Every structure is written in C-alpha cells, then in structure tokens.
Amino acid sequence: MLPWAIVALWVAALAIAGPLAGKLADVQQNRAVDYLPTSADSTQVAKVQDALPGGESTDLVLVYHRDSGLTAADRALADRQTAEVASGHTLAAPPRAVPSKDGTTLMYPVSTTEPGQDDEARTAFVDDVRETVRGGDGLAAEVGGPGALTVDAQKVYGSLGGPLLYTTVAVVAVLLILIYRSPLLWLVPLVVAGVADALSMGVVHGLNRGFDVTVTGQSSAVMTILVFGAGTDYALLLVSRYREELTRAERPHEAMAAALRGCGPAVLASSGTVAAGLLCLLAADLSSSRGMGPIAAVGVLCALLAMLTLLPAVLVLLGRRVFWPLVPVYGSEPRRRRSLFAAMGGSAGRRPVAVLVTGGALLGALSLGVLNLPGDLKQEDSFTTEPDSVVAMATLADAYPGRSSRPVTVTTPTERAAETLAKARATEGVAAERGRSGGGWTELSVTTSAAPESAGEKATVLALRERLPGSHVGGPTAQQMDLETAGSRDLKVVVPLVLLSVLLVLIALLRSLVAPLLLVAAVVAVWGASLGIGGLLFEPLLGLKGTDPGLPLLSFVFLVALGVDYGIFLMHRVREEARRGAEPTEAALTALRTTGGVIASAGLVLAATFVVLTNMPLAALVEMGFVIAVGVLLDTFLVRTYLVTSASVALQRRIWWPGALSRTPGASAPRAPELVKAP
Asked: Which of 306, 26, 354, 102 is nearest to 188 (CA)?
C-alpha cells in the first residue's frame, strides 16, 4: 500500500504545482536592469523612469541604409513610413532624420511611453513599428535601439522553454537507453524527472510571489537542466543498487529498502552539498545571481525528493519486469565484467606521484587559456543569431562612428535640473536635453560622441557620475558597467563562502581535513581549466565576441558544487573500504573500480544536459553550458579517475588526517554494503 500512497501524494502535489508551473514564464524578468543590484545607479534610473508620467520609455532607432547611397525615393519612403509611425502612436517628439556623413544611412530616433511597463504592450508596439518600417529593392530598413533589443531578448527567453525541455529530454532519453539497455527502464527516471521539473517550477513561482525572488530566463533554463541532470544522476545510483539488491532479496520492496539504506545517505549528503553551495549565491549583489541560488537549489532538492520517493515507489510497483530483458534473478550472482576503471586505477596506483604531477600540470596549463577570454559581452553581441535590432546597431556603428545611437539617461532632482543640465552639457563630448518631470525628478537625455559601450562612452558615464552628485546615470552602457562591477564584487564575496560551506560539509561527512581539502582543490583546478578551455575556443570555435560578466561566478558555483557531488561518492567509498580494514592503496583502487562506472554514467548525463544550453540562441547560456559541461567531463574522467585516486594512493593513511583512520588500520567496522556499482 505504501508505494500507491506515495504515488497518490505526488499526483496531488502535481495537481497543485502544475497550474503554477505554467505561469512561471509570466513572472520572468529579462530586461538588462532586472539583472542588476537594486542599489546600482542604473537601477535607480529605471525606478525613477517607471514613476515618471507615462512610465518607462521605449526608445527605438529607425534605420534606412543603402550601400551605394540613399536616393531621393529612399528618403521620401523613409519620411512617409516614419510619419505613419508617428500618426499611429503617441511619441515624445516627431521623428527627425539624422543623415550619415557618407549619405548611405538615415536614422530616426523614436521615443514613447505608450506601452508603459507592460511587456506585452511594448512587444506589440515594436512589432507594429517593424511592420511599418520596410525597405526593398536594395534599401535596408531596420528597427534598433534599446527598446528593440529588450523586446528581442524577451522573445528569445520566452521561446527557450519548449526547445530546452524537449532537447534535454531527448538527450537524457538516448543516454539512459544506452546505459540501461532496456526498452522500458529508461522511461521511468525520465518521467519522474519531468514530474520533479513541474514541481520545481511551481515552487519557484511561489517563491517569486511570496518572497519576490527574481526569476530570469537564464535561471529557469538552468533549473530545468539541473532537475534532469542531477535527478538522473541520483536515479542511476539508486537503480544500480536496486538491481544488485534484487539478486539478494526475494521481494522488490525489500530490495528497494536495502538500496535506499545503502545509497540514500550518500545521495542526501551530495545533494545537500550542492544545495548549500548554490544557496551561497544569496550573498551576491546581482539580482539575477541572487535569484539563481534558491531557484537552482529548489531544482536540486525537488529532483532529490522525487528520486528518493516517487522513483522507488514506481519501480516497486513495476517489479522486476521493468529491467527486461536483463531481469535480475533472485539468488543469482551479479555478472562480473572487465572494468575499464580497474585498468585505469591500476595505472594510477603504480605511479601515483607521476600521475598526480602530470595531471596537475595539465590542468594548470589549460587554466592559462583564461588570459585569452574575449572582453566583456556587449548587449548587441549577446545573441548567437543576429535579430533585426542587432543588425540595426551594426549599421549605425558603421555609418555614425562618432556618435552614439543610444542615449545615456540621467535622472536628477527637479529643483537642480537646470544646474545638472548645464554641468552635463559642459562635459566633453556630450549633448544633453531636458525630458520628462514628475514626482520630484527630471529626466535628461544625454548623447555622447563615442560609440555605444566603447571605452570612450564608458569614460563619459564615469565623468557624468563624478560631475553630477545626487543624480543617477543610467542607460544601456551604464547598465553594462554596473553588471561588471557587481560581478567582480560577487566573485570576491561568494567564492569564499562556497568554498567554506562545501569544505565544512565534507569535513563533517568524511571526518577528515586532508581529504576535503584535496577534493576542494581538485574542483577549483577543474574550474580554472574549464574557463581556460573556454578562452581558447569561445571566439575561434563558437564565434562568441565577449564573455558574460556572470560566467566566472556561476560556473564556479556549479562546478564546485557538482564536482564535489561526485567526489563524495568516490571518497565515501574509499573511507568505507578503509574502515573494513583494506590497505590505503587497495581501498582507493576498489572504490574506483566499483563506483567508476556509475559515476562515469552520471557525469556523461550531467555534461550532456548542460551541452543542451550550447544550442540556445543566447551567448550567456552557450558559455555557461560549454564551461560546465567541459568541467564535468574533466572532473569525471581526469580528476576523479586519476588525480584523486593517485593522491589517495600517494598520501596513504595521511589522507584521513586527523581522523582515526589516519592512525590505525580500519578493520574494526563491520563490512558495510557497497555504496554503488557500475550499471
């Protein structure tokens, strides 16, 4: 009756969470300013703009371009179309043509508060303008500007859910079929992971409504990847142990109880370590990173809950036949196969110091690739396929090299508006005009002579912030600068917290200081090597023109948390072997031989799920997916297999210092059941 009761509880939970899960996309915040700290100068500008009459403005640039030079007919067409835009919408001012010096381009800056803060209304406005602004016969007509970039980004994030889910499911399904070699078994953990994903989305929607947790398209995508990746890992461990126990127990529920006793503690410890590491992101200043922490932790914990309750219940109800055609028979001996990991462990065991030094040198050399990482990612380079807004910005950059097409926005107390305007105009390379006023604040629109997000424009933003105390300076370039500043600060604050929290969990679990330090050092080395490989391949192979400011921090948190996850499975088994009386070398090689297969399978699945992100149309997701997938593979097949095993052999009992195992042979503890076996 218990399995049926568990299934019934999950059905009830899904009935509650399902409708909320469907609304998660509605609460996503994907504007650049939504990623920023609430205290950032550009965030304050956005808040003031929201409170001004009409709310947030939508700023566009209508671009007409002909390589051979605009004709009189081109100019007449542009005037007619921009007049049609003005007649159909309430604009801040009539569109005025700004011709390029070479005569190839016309741009018409357009600003309106018509959509206000309504994302759907803003999208409808931009789409309507794009329907009106059309070229042809060699004349290119594009709609760019901050408003168009925002709408294009929101469309991309809004389109991620379906393709991301379907691709992830397909990848995990293929790998599970290859691992289990069963026409039915692979489907069970996949369906359970889908249930966990729906539950996690419902919980995150509740966190957003109840605690105002920032939900972005990036955090939602990563949560789905974690649910399927980590959830499948836990399923591999449980199913592997359950299959073994079915040869010892006559009834499936007895075998499952034994399997949960055997691998449950390690799964709980590993998932707890991952969640603890992710929750350290709550100390981040960036709203997107701070929201990513609890959202990703919810994904991991929902996956854990599903795999330790719903999966066992379904497997027990299906009985032994779920393993067909390789059905484990009660009383039979598990089939022994030649282990690749036994051979790999043997090579590490014969020359542990040489393997350790060589592997460490390789990781160090790869880490030098960090020096080749491309510069900070510009807003127009954040798409892997160029939408209309990015094409427009490229056209403007070529045609107007001495002028920014995206104004810097300054908000200042109204009583000081005249003084602030005069100081802004006195700043070198700046033209400024007064805009809306309301609620005690006045908006100034500042145009710089430097290209968008160039060093010159950044210097102008810094000069304005220095010259205009009491005012706030925002806009796309200022937002990017605030992202970079907050990302640098978060890296210094969150990284030590993650290392400390993970180290404390490992010390408590392994009852040692040396082994936890070894595992933490290993995952830090993997992080550096993975970023280094990214630096070598981002631009030449993937065509990425910049590095997302949040990549170093987020990749560190995920690689440390997930890497230590696998380290727990291996070192927990080494410790068990040592407690049974095995000599240090034997304990390390036995642990690798018995856990290597399932850890390799789990690593392949987790890496494959993150590889899915590299197929997404946003550079930030591509970079994160690439770095984490590479890191997981390095951790699985180099660090766990060779380096940690070699270090265990080289250090002998000293690896358990200052615990009891470092001083005396184990042998006092009864022989515990094996934690995991190769699937």
From this structure: 306
